[in-house]
Structures are given as C-alpha cells and as structure tokens.
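Progress report, Aim 2. The chain analyzed during this reporting quarter is listed below.
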Amino acid sequence: MMNHSLKSQCKVNPGTVIFGKWHQKKYKIVKELGFGANGIVYLAEHNGTLVALKMSDNGLSITSEVNVLKSFAKVQGSSLGPSLLDVDDWQSNQGKISFYVMEYIHGPNFLSFIAQKGRSWTVVLLLQLLNDLDLLHQNGWVFGDLKPENLIVTGPPTRIRCIDVGGTTIQGRAIKEFTEFYDRGYWGLGSRKAEPSYDLFAVGMVMINTAYPNRFSKKTGGIVQLREAIRQKPELVPFEKVIIRALEGGYQSAKQMRSEMLSLVTKQQVPETTKGQSVSKQGNTNIQHGNTNKPKNNQYPSRKTYKKKKKKNGWLETICIITVIVCLYFLYIMFKI
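Predicted structure tokens for the chain:
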C-alpha cells in the first residue's frame, strides 16, 4: 500500500494541467486510475490522445520503472508492458514531483474478461502471458507483482497486456512489490528472490483465481491447502498437474510451462475423436453379429453391404481426424496472437 503522505502529495484533481519542466509538454488530468506503493497513476489527455501518467515524489522509483519500460521496448516480440512516451518533472505547489507518461492500455482486466467471454479464454490468454514472460525472463527481469488486476485484455485482436511494472525486479534481487495471494512466500512455498519460478507461481495462482474470483484466505497454507482448492473445482482439475508443478517451483522457464500446458490442451482434444472412433467400431461389431432388428431373409449382411458400411465408417473417421487437426491449428493460431 502507498503511504498516506505520499498519496496526499501526489493527489491532484481532474482538470489539473501537468506541465513538464524539461520537455514543456502539457497533460490534462482526466481521472485517477489507481495507486500503489510508489505513486499514483492518472488517465490524462495530451494533444487529444489519452495517456497514462504516473507521478511520485520518489525519483529513484520513477527512474527504476522507466528503466523497466525501456527494457520492455528492447524485448522483440513482446508487448507485455505499455510503451514509454515521456519522462519529466512537474513543479507543483507542494514541490517537485517526478512523473512519466506511458501508453494507456484500455480494456477489461483478466478476470472481468473471462467472466464476460467464458473460461475457454483462460488458457489462450495464459499461453500468451507465458510467452511474454519467457522473453522478459530471458532479458534478466522478473515481473514480480503478477495478478489479474494488473493484466488488461485488449483487442481485437485479443491480447493480454500489463498496466503496472512497479514490481518488476532484476533477477537475483529481492522482489520489490507483491500481493499476498500470488506470493509464494506468503504460502510458505518459496522465497521472494526474483527468479522465473516466482512469476510462474503467480501464474498458477492466477489460474486458481479464475475459479475463486473472491480468492480465499490462508488456513494451513502450503501445497496441501492449494491442492485441495484445485480439486474442489471441476474446471481446475484438468490442469492440476501444471498448476501444482508451477506452485512447487517445478518449471525452469515460462517456455517449459507453456509447452506442457499446450500439450495438455491438445491431448484433451483427442479423447473426443477416440470416442467417436470407438462408437463406429462398435457399430460394425453389432452389424456383424446381428441384433433383434436383423433382416428376416439373411442373418448377416451381404459382403457388398459390409464394404459399404466399412467405407462409410472410414470416411467418418477421416472427417473426425481432419476436424481435430483444423481445431488444433485454430488453437495454435490463437495462441500465437
């Protein structure tokens, strides 16, 4: 939480014009978007364009977050965080206040989007997130304060983005900011050292959060309570293996977790096809051995009829296989968005 004195110093009313001391740019405050331990984020207007402006009396904090955003810009193929637009100081009535301006990412947060569009989007968005996290980790950073409130879904095309980089930490250091429910230290399942597995624990908790929108309190803590929470929700059970492994720090990289989750999703498509094939085979068996509705003049079907049935079933199986391949290709395309 942000201390009250800092929030008071950075508190400004809608309509206030922030004038940059060095770059001479003007930003008109529209409304407050949120606040954290190191500052307040406002929706502002600049030359007819909406932007997000974060101000703080802690210059070092601003510098740190600006460096994170600059690092994000260097990560090719990643759009996890917002684009950095400006960095400056504002001479207010209460003294100098540092601020930076970034792209305004508009859209529902992760849980709101899932509630609106359906749980089928959960895996699609998390696969996108894991891909971006892997790129971030390769560049020496850990996101840190990863939670649904910090994840915004934009589109079209549908894309998951982050709106707060305040907790992003250089690997090897102590996590700067965290939220207890998504923090492995809180659950007694690891340290607060900035490493990829810290973020992946949070991804596992985000998955759990989709089935428990209001979260839940720690009782016994540890993996026992979390495993029980997973098993109480049918929508989480198919992903228990991936979630538990993430919670226990079993993944070395986000890419590894993404690969296992993707493999799990594709395998879930196969039983439907197998089931359809077994029904066809069962139908052939019934034809061969006869039933109560068999023809009066012939106990078994003719060879010609049998070939027709077999050919028909072969076509059905082929169609089923093609359908599954098309579905998997569609999922692949969605995951790459």
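Confidence is low (pLDDT under 50) at residues 271-301. The longest strand covers residues 26-36. These observations will guide the mutagenesis work planned for the next reporting period.
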